[in-house]
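[Meeting: bench + compute handoff]

Bench side (C.D.) handed over the final construct sequence. Compute side (W.E.) agreed to return the predicted structure before the next meeting so the bench team could plan truncations. Sequence as handed over:
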Amino acid sequence: MPSYSIGQAARLLGVSGETVRRWADAGRLVTERDEAGNRVIDGVSLAGFATDRAKDAGFESDDVLTSVRNSFRGIVTAVRVDDVVAQVEIQAGPHRLVSVVTREAVEDLGLAVGVVATARVKSTNVHIDRPL
């Protein structure tokens, strides 16, 4: 079973090492000591924590009904609009997602740089929606 250092866990969760230490000190994240005395986090425990954290942060929204399960909530960093199509970039934690959608979709959703949006990935398509 894999285990992760504080730094590795921080990178996987998209937070600082100090945040992971605070969560561990508060009992939100269980740590153990390895042979060298360093704090480590069991992989199964970390996976559960990451899933719970995503739900608590609203990354799985109850405001949208969808069959798509791969959701990336982030901030729009670029919108390039043409006559018919548009390219939208979203930064969701360490993930940069790019979607080509219609110009009408960009206008209807009010997509612009700085707006919070969710990219939903299903197969080879990226769908974008916004919270209500």
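W.E. noted at the follow-up: The helical segments are 6-13, 17-25, 43-56, 103-109. C.D. will use this when planning the next construct.
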